[in-house]
Amino acid sequence: MALARSARVTFPLKLSVVVACRRPGPALAQVLEALRTACEGISAEILLVCPAGRTPKSDLLAGAPEAVAIAGPANALVPDLWGVGLLAAQGEATAFTTAEFLVPRTWARALLDSLGSGATGAGGAIALGEGASVVDRAVYFLRYSSFQPPRDDGPAGEIPGDNAAYRSDALRRHAGPMAGGFWEVDFHRRIRHEGGTLRWVRDATATFRSGGTLPERLRERFRHGRHSGAYRAGPLGHPWWRGVLAAPIVPGVLASRALRRAARAGRLGAALAGLPALLPLAGAWALGEAVGALGARTGRAWR
């Protein structure tokens, strides 16, 4: 992709887009084609990171033939795959997404404009795709209910790591703590501490389209919860027993929070349609947190 100079896009000279793909499928070609279209006219590289043994076939890369496929650890979580891609990224800015999102044509330039205006990180809202399954609705409202559109350009307290870009110099400054993968909440905490800022970008709104099955999602939520519980009881120093004792009430808390956010956004009906899967997913997270906290107490590393 050739570098194009623009009066608006002055930073960076090159954008690295890291795409985590845990389950390569037929929709991957469309995802990559959308990213390629969004990056037209700027200098960009697309790094597709998949778990070892799941590298997609060449026909799935047709949407962006210049995309580079990279093998990550087997059975890796998305933050682990992002971490692998971050090590390979060459751009002055690095964007993160997954193979479950379609980005608009304005995505890359809008994010770069925000970084060029001084933000350390910039992110877009996440919309729910049409025709979403019960499982997809549950995943969406459980994970992304606080990032629903619309989001006008402006300061942000948090942005979704699944749809964000950052100045690569800031990422490199914190490369040591992120050696175990890119976990955006921890990184956001670090950059805010040093005076960095996060911003919403209206024209970078992405659409969530998954198709994952409930058993797959339950395993993912358990593993993410386990990491969270271990991290809270380990590096953050929270009492390990708190995560264990709170487990029975966490599913209800997570579900009610997601429903309240959906209601405020006028999407309560869509959220209620996902409730049969949302509660089990919230339960898997709570169980994972308890197991992770207990593992931190016993000195066992849970991954």
Overview of this protein structure:
The protein is an alpha/beta fold. It has 2 domains: 15-124 and 159-208, Spore Coat Polysaccharide Biosynthesis Protein SpsA, Chain A (Alpha-Beta Complex); 214-298, no CATH class. Helix content is 43%, strand content 15%. It contains 11 helices and 11 strands. It has helices at 28-38, 78-88, 107-116, 134-144, 168-173, 184-193, 214-233, 240-246, 250-264, 268-273, 275-298; strands at 15-20, 44-51, 68-72, 93-98, 101-102, 121-123, 126-128, 154-155, 164-167, 198-200, 206-208. The strands form 2 sheets. Strands 3-2-1-4-9-6-10-8 form an 8-stranded mixed sheet, sandwiched between helices. Helix 4 packs across helix 11, helix 7 packs parallel to helix 11 and helix 9 (250-264) packs across helix 11 (275-298). Mean pLDDT is 89; it is low at 1-9.
CATH superfamily of the largest domain: Spore Coat Polysaccharide Biosynthesis Protein SpsA, Chain A
Determine and state the CATH class of the largest domain.
Answer: Alpha Beta
Low-pLDDT stretches are 1-9
- How many strand segments? 11
**First-residue to last-residue Cα separation:** 38 Å
- Rounded to the nearest angstrom, the radius of gyration is 19 Å
Question: What are the salient characteristics of this protein?
Answer:
11 helices; 43% helix; 2 domains; 303 residues; 3-stranded mixed beta sheet
